[in-house]
TrEMBL record:
Gene3D superfamilies: SGNH hydrolase
GO function terms (MF aspect): phosphatidylcholine lysophospholipase activity
Spans through the membrane: none
Organism in which the protein naturally occurs: Gloeothece citriformis (strain PCC 7424) (Cyanothece sp. (strain PCC 7424))
Protein name as catalogued: Lipolytic protein G-D-S-L family
Domain SGNH hydrolase-type esterase residue range list: 24-214
Domain of life (superkingdom): Bacteria
Origin organism lineage: Bacteria, Bacillati, Cyanobacteriota, Cyanophyceae, Oscillatoriophycideae
């Protein structure tokens, strides 16, 4: 396996001069749900690499809507092996983005967490450890939500206090393992509540077209 250079770890804008085999695993933020124009930030990154780079980098989107951390862990080492350039090979880089589906409260705003925070910390540590055994890893954090639009699907109450707790747990786990973590939540919250709401879909959970463009820019520039 070739070594990923430090510029790539610091910013996905600067790439090594050899083809990379990259997989992005996670939930609907990876899948790109809510963006009928650009297909999400992963698709935008794939198109960027195809259109502007002299070296053909391969990026597979392995996002599944609704996935929680334990589900991404279960499929981590299976799915990419069925992709052409990765048959019988390891990726050069894994991009992870998952956790938002673990964080809602069930049934009511003060209901129990879908995934207990202590259990989540164990599961995210397991996911990161397993991924790091394969290749370098980058983690893209979750976005804030619009609490006024809850519940999602009539039963999931997402809120930004719990979002912050779960993203901090993920960020700490990444820091322990020296995995680059892009703190999307803090970046977006720093731009103000009005900005956040204007970049979310009507469901209050998923980014809209402008939101995915902003997310793509945040990921590309670290």
């Amino acid at each position: 396996m070739q070594t990923i250079t430090r510029p790539l770890i610091n910013s996905l804008k600067t790439l090594p001069n050899y083809p990379l085999r990259v997989v992005a695993l996670g939930d609907s933020l990876v899948y790109g749900y809510g963006d009928p124009v650009g297909g999400g930030w992963v698709e935008r990154l794939r198109r960027h690499w195809m259109s502007t780079e002299s070296v053909e980098h391969v990026l597979y989107n392995l996002g599944i809507r609704g996935d929680r951390v334990f589900q991404v862990t279960e499929r981590l080492e299976q799915e990419y092996r069925y992709r052409g350039e990765l048959k019988n090979r390891l990726p050069d880089l894994i991009i992870l983005s998952v956790g938002i589906n673990d964080s809602p409260r069930l049934g009511r705003p003060d209901g129990r967490l879908f995934t207990d925070l202590d259990l989540f910390q164990e599961q995210i540590s397991q996911l990161l450890a397993q991924a790091q055994k394969l290749c370098p890893v980058i983690f893209v954090g979750m976005t804030p939500v619009d609490e006024a639009k809850m519940p999602f699907l009539d039963c999931f109450y997402f809120n930004n206090i719990d979002q912050y707790r779960f993203k901090e747990a993920t960020k700490r786990a990444c820091q322990i393992r020296q995995i680059p973590y892009i703190d999307i939540f803090d970046k977006w919250m720093a731009r103000g509540e009005d900005w956040v709401r204007s970049h979310l879909s009507s469901d209050g959970l998923h980014p809209n077209v402008e939101g995915y463009q902003a997310l793509y820019n945040d990921v590309l520039h670290g």
